[in-house]
Write a structure and sequence with these properties.
Blueprint lengths: L15 H20 L3 E2 L5 E3 H8 L4 H6 L2 E3 L5 E4 L4 H10 L8 E10 L11 E10 L5 H17 L4 E7 L3 H17 L6 H6 L16 H5 L10 H16 L5 E2 L11 E9 L7 E7 L3 H4 L7 E7 H10 L11 E5 L5 H14 L5 E3 L6 H11 L3 E5 L1 H6 L2 E5 L7 E4 L1 H12 L2
Parallel strand pairs: 1-5, 7-8, 12-13, 12-14
Antiparallel strand pairs: 2-4, 3-4, 5-6, 6-11, 7-9, 9-10, 10-11, 14-15, 15-16
The chain binds adenosine-5'-triphosphate and magnesium ion (MG).
């Protein structure tokens, strides 16, 4: 026997009993983004590694150690996208989307990171990302947060909280960086190796450290709030004002910095306690510096990425949704009826009624066993073709759930009008 090959570590399969959750989630998200006037984009899985180096920065976990990187046949280093923001900026620049028009864009696709797999952390995972260009905010930043709240409502997700912070302008951030370095330099002995290695390259990341030993030194660190300029303060205050007016609750978390270098002004995370340690289901913020860092004209930008896997897990673990009926109609036939008759009838019905879910019994079997399958499918009606029906050019239709309807003999047109009513129910 040949050796059975299993899937790679950190990858997962989606089986039919769960795929409907993905489909429904994706359909809901697509509908809502369209309702808010956002347009979908699609970009390749593979990009030049240099794109992520210039956009995400060298000193982030993602670029330092998480990318699936290899050389193509020409010796060029390529990477499987670990996130979508860099590719979106590249796409927007390369296709001339940023010349005059503002853009409200979104994507939904798998990302790849070579991380240590655990609950809520996979090596292939899907993100719905939203990226907006050409608006200085904070109105559009507020819209993004309200849009995500609307998504949670529509998806039936409760127990999520919003944490918010401001990193101010690049100048504020640079000033803060200096005082932060001074603070940590004064307590060097309290830092771990990772923090020391980031002290000069990306000191804000130290605030993000998950090492409990660092908690006291982080707690005593100066706060970004005390280093915001008047303009940065006003930007953040107006954002909070809009959120307050719309009744969206948030907590200001002064230690929320987000890992990446390019963030400015507001940054945020939506967190749930229902998923254990990997509770962040959506994260983002403003990144006014990125377009310029990728070789474009300075363009204000803001966005977020939602972890679709974690949302699916949440919905399944907590049974937030229940599967809907899949089959409307089940078509069965007497053993003596050629399969061509049944198959042709099904094709004729399908041509007339888009959206009807119909299953045709395959192979030959007794009526009893076919009815069993029809019942199991949950169908409302069974269409039965027997010898009489074939001779009279009609069809027996039996209601499997509605006793009053019983069984009726219908012509093709009558059958179509009966089944047409099913799609809208
Ligand atoms: P973390 O701190 O959990 O590693 P991150 O800062 O790397 O998160 P982002 O790059 O901001 O995450 O990605 C946005 C969202 O994508 C996360 O909030 C999470 O929901 C999801 N996500 C990120 N990495 C993974 C992964 N390996 N598996 C599943 N979902 C992920
Ligand atoms: Mg990560």
């Amino acid at each position: 026997m040949s050796k059975k090959i299993n899937r790679l570590r950190g990858m997962y399969d989606v089986t039919p009993d769960q795929v409907w959750v993905w489909q429904k989630l994706e359909a809901t998200v697509t509908r809502i983004l369209s309702e808010y006037g956002y347009q979908e984009i699609r970009f390749p899985i593979l990009e030049e590694t240099a794109l992520f180096h210039s956009a995400i920065g060298e000193v982030t976990d993602v670029v330092e150690k998480e990318m699936f990187t290899f050389e193509n046949r020409k010796g060029v280093s390529v990477s499987m996208r670990p996130e979508g923001t860099a590719s979106t900026v590249r796409l927007a620049l390369q296709n001339g989307l940023l010349f005059n028009d503002p853009q409200k864009l979104w994507y939904n696709c798998p990302m790849f990171r070579y991380e240590k797999p655990q609950k809520g952390r996979n090596r292939q995972f899907s993100q719905v990302g939203v990226e907006v260009f050409g608006f200085e905010g904070p109105d559009v930043d507020a819209e993004l947060l309200l849009l995500t709240r609307h998504m949670w409502d529509q998806l039936g997700i409760k127990n999520v909280r919003l944490e918010l912070n401001s990193l101010g302008t690049p100048a504020c951030r640079d000033a803060y960086r200096e005082v932060l370095i001074k603070h940590f330099e004064a307590h060097l002995e309290l830092l771990d190796e990772e923090a020391r290695s980031r002290l000069y390259s990306n000191p804000l990341r130290i605030l993000d450290s998950k090492n409990p030993a660092l908690k006291p030194v982080i707690e005593q660190a100066p706060m970004i709030q005390d280093h915001l300029s008047v303009d940065a303060r006003a930007h953040f205050a107006e954002l909070c004002e809009i959120l307050d007016a719309c009744g969206l609750d948030y907590q200001i978390n002064p230690k929320l910095v987000r890992g990446l270098d390019y963030y400015t002004h507001n940054v945020f995370e939506w967190i749930t306690d229902d998923l254990g340690a990997q509770g962040t289901i959506c994260a983002g913020g403003r990144y006014d510096r990125l377009v310029e860092m990728q070789g474009g004209k300075a363009t204000p930008a803001t966005g977020f990425a939602m972890g679709v896997d974690r949302l699916v897990e949440l919905i399944i673990d907590h049974e937030l949704w229940h599967p809907e009926q899949q089959t409307d109609v089940y078509l069965i036939r007497d053993k003596s009826i050629p399969s061509a008759v049944a198959i042709k009838l099904a094709e004729d019905i399908r041509a007339r009624i888009p959206g009807l879910n119909m299953m045709v019994n395959m192979g030959k079997a007794s009526f009893k066993s076919q009815f069993k399958k029809a019942d199991k499918s949950g169908a409302r009606f069974a269409i039965i073709i027997g010898e009489n029906e074939l001779a009279n050019n009609e069809y027996a239709v039996k209601a499997l759930q509605d006793r009053e309807f019983g069984q009726q003999q219908l012509s093709f047109d009558e059958l179509v009008s009966l089944l047409s009513t099913l799609q809208n129910q």
